[in-house]
From TrEMBL:
Name of the featured protein: Methylmalonyl-CoA mutase large subunit
InterPro entries: Cbl-dep_enz_cat
Domain of life: Archaea
GO molecular function: catalytic activity; cobalamin binding
Length: 34
């Protein structure tokens, strides 16, 4: 959380923050219900 706050204080956009998080943790893929 402190890193996100620091990014916001340096005027990073939500998209930029999300891209970094997506690169680091991946994107949620729901399981297929059969």
């Amino acid at each position: 959380m402190p890193h996100i706050i620091a990014a916001v204080k340096t005027y990073a956009t939500v998209g930029e923050i999300c891209n970094v998080l997506r690169d680091e943790f991946g994107e949620y893929q729901p399981g297929s219900a059969v």
